Amino acid sequence: MKADFEASKPIYVQIADQIFQRIVREEIKPGDKLPSVREMAIQLGVNPNTIQRSYTEMERMGVVETRRGQGTFVIEKESMVEELQQTMQKEIILQFVKSMEELGFSKKEMISGLEAFLNEGDQNGDPV
User: Fold this and answer.
1) Pairing of strands 64-67, 71-74
2) Closest by alpha carbon to 44, among 63, 17, 71, 66?
């Protein structure tokens, strides 16, 4: 399972983001063990140093912990998943707002466009 990475963002950050998304979607739960650095490197087709950097960054952020001789685990803190969700939501909203501002949209136009999009999705039975 090799991943496709964007050139605009460091690979170690993209890997951490993928793991964060899996935690938020509850595919990985607090207390779960992550694959070893070597296993993950093979799965994603990247250098083990890149995975180690991702794990180190996630540990610095308080999302995972490394237990000597056992591996890397998602921390067992109830509020962590919620904090992660809120952080990711803010980042996505910030990206959206920046893009819309670059196109010249006002805050009012952004809100009305987003509301129209969400309402349209509801009417078509599409998941929103």
Assistant:
1) antiparallel
2) 17
